[in-house]
Amino acid sequence: MNLLLASASPRRRALLAELGWTFDVCPADVDETPRGGETPEALVGRLARDKALHVGRRFPDRWVVAADTVVAVGDAILGKPADREEGLAMLRLLQGRAHRVLTGVALAVPGEETPRGAVECTEVRFRPLDEASLRAYAESGEGDDKAGSYAIQGKGALLVEGIAGCYFNVVGLPLTRLSALLGEAGWPLASQWGGAKDA
Ligand SMILES: Cc1cn([C@H]2C[C@H](O)[C@@H](COP(=O)(O)OP(=O)(O)OP(=O)(O)O)O2)c(=O)[nH]c1=O
């Protein structure tokens, strides 16, 4: 078993576990501040690579998977809310319209200097919501540690009218995109269903 998930996110862990893969977890500690003028797409790509690089340097013999997710409205980046008020402001912005959920996914492979990476985009459309509903959802606390201040996989399902693209990308890890990266790096899909990535 040679996969290492560079993430503290319980959602990412659960998604990989659902595939039946065996892996270890080692969260990456990187500065997630956007650079001036950086697009949301560039930001998630850079942070996913930084996380993979950071953990890959500590464990050079492992295949290291990392990701970063933000919600984007135009060029505005919505990360995790600092507090409930900011979370509520995000929900007010998102209601009644479509936004993008962007996840950068990166893979550090032993012997390769630069992590492989990709950015996946899913469009999510929220239904129109009144202030009382938005407040009640914010007060549930579910969105506190989530990009855009909601969780499509939980109570936040009722905020969503529809999505276009990869559902798992919204939850924080675009599984088919990751599978393709692993395939290109030498772990073919046919053996991904076998579970363990051998050294
Ligand atoms: C939009 C949305 C986001 N999220 C989550 C996925 C991510 O865990 C989180 C965005 O935070 P991230 O900074 O991408 O990840 P993280 O801090 O949780 O973990 P790490 O950096 O260690 O990998 O938002 C949901 O769970 N459901 C959703 O519907």
Automatic annotation (TrEMBL):
Site features described as Important for substrate specificity, chain residue numbers: 11, 69, 153
Its required cofactor(s), as named, are:
a divalent metal cation
Pfam families linked: Maf
Q: What GO molecular function annotations does the UniProt record carry, in alphabetical order?
A: dTTP diphosphatase activity; UTP diphosphatase activity
Tell me which EC number(s) this protein carries.
3.6.1.9
Q: Which GO terms describe its cellular component?
A: cytoplasm
Return the SUPFAM superfamilies for the record: ITPase-like
Keyword Cytoplasm recorded: yes
Job of this protein: Nucleoside triphosphate pyrophosphatase that hydrolyzes dTTP and UTP. May have a dual role in cell division arrest and in preventing the incorporation of modified nucleotides into cellular nucleic acids.
Protein name per its UniProtKB record: dTTP/UTP pyrophosphatase
Organism lineage reads as: Bacteria, Thermotogati, Synergistota, Synergistia, Synergistales
